[in-house]
Structure formats: structure tokens, C-alpha cells
């Protein structure tokens, strides 16, 4: 499973310049299936998390000093990420067990 940070939105707050308040991300999980070219099929979902403003100057990290691992940890601790991860894991389970087949609606004949 990978959480990939796509974009971060910042705001200058009184004590905290360039504070990250919104992060857009995606989750990707490899399935056990391959496409016709033999490439592994991934399932994923995009999401966004609104973060709470910092309250402790001692734990604030300036924007330029943030690391990818730090931001990923913030995101993976949010309920939005947990909900998206559960949905993607279900998709992977379905894909690994033969996938789904789309059929015409029985009343649409």
C-alpha cells in the first residue's frame, strides 16, 4: 500500500507561517492480477484531508522542513484515509477473486 501526496495547501497563520491545512493524496494497492500487457493492476482512490491548525510552537514544522514521511503519517492518521483504504482493500479483494462482471439491467431488455 502506498499513500502518495499530490498537493498541499497552506495558509499563513499568526504564529505559524505556511501552515499546511489541506492535503490531497491517493492510495494505491497492487492486486494479484495483471493486464493484457503483463503489468500489475493497481486499485486506488483519491482523497483530501483537512488538517487541524497547530497549537504548539514546539511541535510545528516549517513548510520547507517537512518531509514526505511526516505528511504521509499525518494523512494516514485521518478518518478520511482509513475510510478510503477500506474501500480500496475491498476492491483489491474483489479483483484478486476474479473481479466483477457488468451486465445489462434485467428490466432494460
Q: How are the secondary structure elements laid out?
A:
Layout: E1 2-11, E2 19-34, E3 40-50, H1 68-76, H2 79-96
Antiparallel strand pairs: 1-2, 2-3
What does this structure look like?
The protein has 109 residues and is α+β, with helices and mostly antiparallel strands. It has one domain (2-108). The protein contains 2 helices and 3 strands. β2 (19-34) and β3 (40-50) form a beta hairpin. The model has no long low-confidence stretch (mean pLDDT 93).
Count of runs of 4 or more consecutive helical residues = 2
Using only C-alpha atoms, the radius of gyration works out to: 19 Å
Oligomeric grouping of the chains: single chain
Mean pLDDT: 93
Helix content: 10-25%
Beta strand %: 25-35%
- Mind describing the biggest β-sheet? 3 strands, antiparallel
Order of helices and strands: EEEHH
Tell me the count of domains. 1
Number of E strands: 3
Class inferred from helices and paired strands: alpha+beta
The shape, in one word, is: elongated
| Strand numbers in spatial order across the main sheet | 1-2-3
Parts with pLDDT < 50 across at least 5 consecutive residues: none
Amino acid at each position: 500500500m502506498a499513500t502518495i501526496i499530490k498537493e498541499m495547501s497552506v495558509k499563513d497563520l499568526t504564529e505559524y507561517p505556511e501552515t499546511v491545512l489541506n492535503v490531497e493524496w491517493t492510495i494505491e494497492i497492487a492486486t494479484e492480477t495483471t493486464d493484457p500487457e503483463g503489468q500489475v493492476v493497481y486499485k486506488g482512490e483519491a482523497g483530501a484531508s483537512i488538517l487541524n491548525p497547530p497549537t504548539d510552537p514546539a511541535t510545528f514544522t516549517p513548510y520547507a522542513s517537512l518531509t514526505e514521511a511526516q505528511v504521509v503519517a499525518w494523512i494516514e492518521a485521518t478518518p478520511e484515509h482509513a475510510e478510503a483504504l477500506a474501500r480500496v482493500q475491498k476492491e483489491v479483494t474483489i479483483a484478486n477473486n476474479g473481479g466483477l462482471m457488468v451486465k445489462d439491467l434485467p428490466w432494460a431488455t
